[in-house]
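Per your request, structure below.
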């Protein structure tokens, strides 16, 4: 009889638990959760057309959550995942803030739309924080991989 307690690789549930405990996993999980709540608020109000942004951003966050959780970013090297994630987070922050401000300034029609707009601003801040952390990651990677340019330049001249 085979021993099922000793696995070579962790199960999907174990990867989920361990990835949510990381900073990036927690941010992506918060983005998914807040986007889902914003979808519910907008869908139950008279301004249901604004559900497009939270649906798209929740879907993209779920895709990136799955890719990073399963370490697929280390297997598919043809895509620069860090820059793709930066673009996703920056676009999400801008779109959430714009649509939420349009709802807040334009005079909300009902309470659910107003709640969706306020939570949308909160989601925009989460996406902006995600953009900031990705930018810091890119910046630290560039500083660690920078070559001393003075010696290289002089050796090329000689």
């Amino acid at each position: 009889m085979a021993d099922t307690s000793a696995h070579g690789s962790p199960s999907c549930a174990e990867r989920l638990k361990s990835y949510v405990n990381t900073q990036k996993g927690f941010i992506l999980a918060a983005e998914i959760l807040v986007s889902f709540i914003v979808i519910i608020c907008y869908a139950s109000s008279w301004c249901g057309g604004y559900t497009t942004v939270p649906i798209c951003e929740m879907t993209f966050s779920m895709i990136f959550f799955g890719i990073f959780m399963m370490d697929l970013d280390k297997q598919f090297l043809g895509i620069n995942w860090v820059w793709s994630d930066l673009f996703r987070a920056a676009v999400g922050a801008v779109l959430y803030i714009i649509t939420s401000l349009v709802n807040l300034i334009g005079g909300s029609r009902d309470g659910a739309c107003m709640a969706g707009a306020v939570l949308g601003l909160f989601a925009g801040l989460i996406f902006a924080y995600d953009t900031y952390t990705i930018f810091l990651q890119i910046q630290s990677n560039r500083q660690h991989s920078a070559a001393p340019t003075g010696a290289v330049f002089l050796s090329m001249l000689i």
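Residues 15 and 70 are 7 Å apart (CA to CA).

Regards,
D.
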